[in-house]
Amino acid sequence: MVEPVFQRVALIGIGLIGSSIARAAQEFPGLAGEIVANARSQNSLDRVTELGFADRCEIDPAKAVAGADCVILCSPVGTYAELAERIAPALKPGAVLTDVGSTKQSVIRDVGPFVPQDVHFVPAHPIAGTEFSGPDSGFATLFQGRWCLLTPPPGTDEAAISGLRKFWELMGAQTATMDAAHHDRMIAIVSHLPHLIAFTICGTADDLADETRQEVLQYAASGFRDFTRIAASDPVMWRDIFLNNREALLEMLGRFTEDAQAMARAVRWGDTNYIEDKINRSRKIRQSLIELKQA
Amino acid sequence: MVEPVFQRVALIGIGLIGSSIARAAQEFPGLAGEIVANARSQNSLDRVTELGFADRCEIDPAKAVAGADCVILCSPVGTYAELAERIAPALKPGAVLTDVGSTKQSVIRDVGPFVPQDVHFVPAHPIAGTEFSGPDSGFATLFQGRWCLLTPPPGTDEAAISGLRKFWELMGAQTATMDAAHHDRMIAIVSHLPHLIAFTICGTADDLADETRQEVLQYAASGFRDFTRIAASDPVMWRDIFLNNREALLEMLGRFTEDAQAMARAVRWGDTNYIEDKINRSRKIRQSLIELKQA
């Protein structure tokens, strides 16, 4: 019997990411001795019981975290401040407190002040997901070959960090450590801005006249379809991400808008070299992704 | 032996679309008795000969179209005016002259004036493609389950239209007829604008500092990747499309930009209802696509 990285893991929130961790813990040895699941609604927990991937369900987050060696916040980032306040007194000394949120400065801001001195706070962000949500949508291999970024504040216990790295690596992820502010800027361009754009263009299309709207759906194959996949993501999760990475997102949108206006100008005035140059650069980026096996 | 829709088909341009038509004609009976391929470069034609999907290759477009019952322009739309002028005197009386370009008003503007009275001009646009280009990239099933939109000018011979419809339907496509101006506006939002956005965001990311650029590639899985697939398309083809659907594209970009700025304002001021509402609309559009089997 392999000694697990954590004896007891409490998952606060059990949607796509939480339920994937629970399933991975069931499938891959050495992750967790016991999985405790918490959700905001009893309905979700009833479904978790039916699906059978948790050892125990607790509707009270404080009860869920009691005695856990690792507590992972897996709910939308907008819920973290209130959750942290509620669970803080129940955290076990020496436990690792972490999360899976897509914004890291906000997590440090919202959770940090509540973390007891003897608890190790290691914010994390697994770059994995699908357009589906809820406890039914998770699967054990979601993190295989994906990255999990850790943004521990300066001075965080090294053993806690390496324990959490090992946990993610056993789920098949690669891990890297970086500064939270740097993380937020980088993720703003690779994830948050593409989502904002995808949500927006769906709305722009939906505002067209009735006849055209139907056609947009019918003829979506020519590019639009690729945008709608990411636009199908969970509304509350994404609302919280946008609001909690506001500055970096607005800056990246500002840059993008300038670039789109420059392209519009080139189209208006027939600047063929400018247009071709931009398209060629895009191709090179795609090529790099293929070489890095990220596409 | 089935009588083919067209005895001889001349393909002017033999990239992704042209070579897919040639391959389909080889594979599916009843399409064409003979395929003549034309390309701008001898290198491309040599490759076509090696690949063996054409009955004959002609470097001179006028020779390629001579005696053809159907001539299909499959090169970038920016080449059509010059090509039309060159091939017009060689077109066979009663032939169907068509194309596969993504902009239809420009085709009527550029090709229309050269079309002899006894030739049937039926502009068309198969909504199909991949991010690959060149004669190696085509395949016989590219059009299966896809749409081909026909935009014949008023008064076009009905037999010519229905012959071309049959040709596309035998390749597995569904066909519809519409006005060219309407086509261009609708395709601007479902295809041209998404491509412009994808090209632009790749450039915005590429302009970031060296360190971040490497990370953008590394962590692209979170959304950016979906944009880069369509950004890998052929630069000359897309340059020509943008320049030849300028007005509709700039109008749709204008609408999109307004909507993106409204979303930015909601993010800045924390307007949670606005953000959630927009994301929920996007989800519904994705759901409609799934129901229409377009996603």
Detailed description of the structure:
- The structure is a homodimer of 295-residue chains.
- With 295 residues, the first copy, chain A, is of the alpha/beta class.
- Chain A has two domains: 6-178, NAD(P)-binding Rossmann-like Domain (Rossmann fold, 3-Layer(aba) Sandwich), CATH 3.40.50.720; 182-291, Orthogonal Bundle (6-phosphogluconate dehydrogenase C-terminal fold).
- Helix content of chain A is 52%, strand content 13%.
- Chain A has twelve helices and nine strands.
- Chain A has helices at residues 16-27, 42-51, 61-65, 80-87, 105-111, 158-170, 180-206, 210-218, 224-230, 235-244, 246-269, 272-291, and strands at residues 6-12, 32-38, 56-57, 70-73, 96-99, 120-122, 124-127, 147-150, 174-177.
- In chain A, the strands form two sheets. In chain A, strands 3-2-1-4-5-6 form a six-stranded parallel beta sheet. Chain A has a three-stranded mixed beta sheet with strand order 7-8-9, covered by helices on one side.
- In chain A, helix 7 crosses helix 9 and helix 7 (180-206) crosses helix 11 (246-269).
- The longest helix of chain A has 27 residues, at 180-206.
- The first copy, chain A, is globular and about 65 Å long.
- The model of chain A has no long low-confidence stretch (mean pLDDT 94).
